[in-house]
2-polyprenyl-6-methoxyphenol hydroxylase
Amino acid sequence: MTVGPAPLWKDDAMTTTQDLPATTTVCIAGCGPAGAVLGLLLARAGIDVVVLEKHADFLRDFRGDTVHASTMQVLAELDLLEGFEELPQQRTTSISLMTDDGFVTLGDFTRLPGRFQCLSMVPQYELLDFLTTEAARSSSFALHRQVEVVGLVEEDGAVTGVRYRRTAGGGSEGELRALLTVAADGRSSAVRRAAGMSPVEFGAPMDVLWYRLPKRAGDPGASFARLVPGRLLPMIDRGGYWQGAYTMPKGTVASLRAAGIEALRADLARAMPFLADRLDGALRSWDDTGFLEVRVNRLRRWYRPGLLCIGDAAHAMSPVAGVGINLAVQDAVAAANALVLPLRRGAVTPRDLRRVQRRRDLPTRVTQLVQRGVQRQMFGAAGDPVPPRGVPVPLRVMSRVPPLLRLFSRFMAIGIRNEHVDVTLLGPAGAPARALR
Ligand SMILES: Cc1cc2nc3c(=O)[nH]c(=O)nc-3n(C[C@H](O)[C@H](O)[C@H](O)COP(=O)(O)OP(=O)(O)OC[C@H]3O[C@@H](n4cnc5c(N)ncnc54)[C@H](O)[C@@H]3O)c2cc1C
């Protein structure tokens, strides 16, 4: 790719693969939004936490970058807003569908309650780098990159740590014991699998191909989604370039690829003629695209003794409304609020872990229900996908009835059962956590 950000790779003290301890209080597998925020919160509460991340850096091309009002609120509660605002980002106050008959507004954030009336597109690697840099200010926090969790350590039916393998430097293996292990390792969670937990799959009617194109003078001024018969084509304004999404009926990526990249270019040029001047240069092969197999699933039970799953490891979300990061962050906040005191006491019971799931289960269920409803309206039922033909009637009605539009905008930006950081648990006032010896 010739457009887009330069790789971000900071080789500082917190990124070493050396000096992995043998024990800690909390071991978090995976440093995505869920793992990074939970690590930060626990470290600020004085709990020893080790985060293991299998990749060498946070570069995630074509990942979720939507930071909604609920996440900005969490950052404000952590006194991190000033630093967050310095990250490269594009803010928007509305989301619209561009149809042949004009624009249809699907989200208007200008009348949201609370402090934030916008959403922000922030490259995920910038956000993760920022969060972990802040976490590393606390001596309780350690992030070890290029360390992949490959299994669990179990004793008497309880998880007591993880087995890991370094993905660099000879691939040595080891064990890390912890009072609590958290699976924050995403939608294909190895920890979840090792624990014998499998999510209920709800299916999805579509998959997504991501690509980037340079922006030029005269282009539309903000993000939008183009709807043409047969295709929904979201276009995210990333400042210097467009991040585009090409939705297709599930299971059709092979036939799309068989038709050749020229067919994709022609389809995009037909739908958005202003792009025609740059498609040949920027979309030269399928290597210039990224494929997302859309999945919607959820664990029935998010925990086992000694183990908690959060974020995508507990529930993979549909890309509808771009709320995956926000739900992951809300899970992390709920987990920290519920678990700091038990962790300080040195004993986390299944009941404590159940409190986290009870707090987050309903928001997850309702969000997935709404996402699946929108998916069905736009693309047909899972297993029986139909290409979108026009703006579904319920969305058209919603866009024209201000109270409904406000409700849907609030659902996207703030979600159901908004979590707030319990700041009384953070800071030097907290008693030091007891690390396992
Ligand atoms: C292509 C794509 C586009 C998306 N678009 C959006 C969007 O626009 N808006 C939005 O809000 N959401 C979007 N999402 C969803 C969003 O990215 C996720 O919901 C969110 O990142 C979940 O956070 P998480 O921390 O639970 O998991 P992840 O972000 O998946 O993080 C998991 C981390 O664990 C690491 N890991 C995995 N396995 C191991 C292991 N065995 N050992 C150690 N580390 C491991 C991974 O490297 C990763 O860093 C998108 C997702 C994808 C894949």
Notes: Residues 350-379 form the longest helix (30 residues). Residues 15-201+296-419 form a domain with the FAD/NAD(P)-binding domain fold (CATH 3.50.50.60).
